[in-house]
Prior knowledge:
Elements: H1 2-38, E1 40-46, E2 49-55, H2 60-66, E3 76-78, E4 88-94, E5 97-103, E6 106-112, H3 117-124, E7 133-134, E8 147-151, E9 153-164, E10 168-177, E11 181-185, E12 190-201, E13 204-217, E14 222-233, E15 239-253, E16 283-285, E17 295-297, H4 299-306, E18 315-320, E19 329-333, H5 337-343, E20 345-353
Parallel strand pairs: 1-4, 5-8, 10-14, 15-19, 16-18
Antiparallel strand pairs: 1-2, 3-4, 5-6, 7-8, 9-12, 11-14, 12-13, 14-15, 15-20, 16-19, 17-18, 17-20
Amino acid sequence: MNSHRRGKSWIVFSAAVLIVLAVAGVATARYVQHVQDMTRHVVLDDDGYRVEIDTFDNTVNELLNRYEIVLGPGDEIEPGLDAALDKETNIRITRAMAVTVKADGEEKVVHLTGGTVRKALDMAGVKVREDDIVNLDMNEPLVPQAVIEVTRMDQEIIVETEAIPYQVVARQNESLDEGVDRVIQEGEQGELQRKILVVYRDGKEIDRSLTEETVVKEPLDRIIEKGTGKHFTNSRGLVVRYKDKRKMSATAYSAGYASTGKNPGDPYYGITSSGKKVKPHHTIAAPPDIPFGTKVYIPELILFWRARGVEIDGIFTVEDRGSAITGNRIDIYFESEEMANIWGRRSVTVYFLR
């Protein structure tokens, strides 16, 4: 009787255990399925470093935060940070390189994942002009830590002016007394204009060259008349102008010693080399370099005749020549041989009149 009861109890217990295990198995299966449903498989490629991750995170940003993956300036990520994670998600991070751009006295660092020198300059906001110089080719691919330098080349045309001094032109004027000047025309400076090309490198002048030179205004000469006239006051108080004077040796001759005709009865008696007839206080013979008709003033003859009671004006005319009359010598006609002998030979001052 007791044995039968024990057998029946074991059967009930075993059935209960089996029921509990069955219920537990169903629950476990359901939990595992739930976990599998919540898990996301992610393949992360961080600039070539590749890992696979199973995660419960919902977005790309949550995943990065969990694993402390930080994006730097210019880094690119695909898909974006706010994108939801799917059961299978591929995440790709492309890391940016730092490029230094130097221009206009400033230095900028830009970050970009690739491209050319031109792209880096655009990102830095640097415009390159036609004459500017870049140390790298504009189409050259960028490399990490590249340094791009832009040298500014500027040029301008400047205009310089320079005064052209006027010339002073002196003209002799015999009608003006010696030592007297008269301004005929005032001088004016001219103007020379130069166009100069100035070249600058980064704002500093490195070269300049002349491109054009033009006389904008010609100078105007200053014209001065300088008096060369000489004068003296003769014995009668009159002002007499002369052009030159010399100290000369003066001899005397009479009509019988005129150039042609030796006898008083000769028709050529007293006729000079110029064809003029000799006249007292008038005719002199002079060297060939003094033309016929030249009038001279000899003050010593005024004094000579005044001492003998005769007043003359002292003006004589060159009308004769003589073989012995050369150099600084003249021969003065006297009406009589007696007076010619009295005079003889003397040193005189001869003024050559205008």
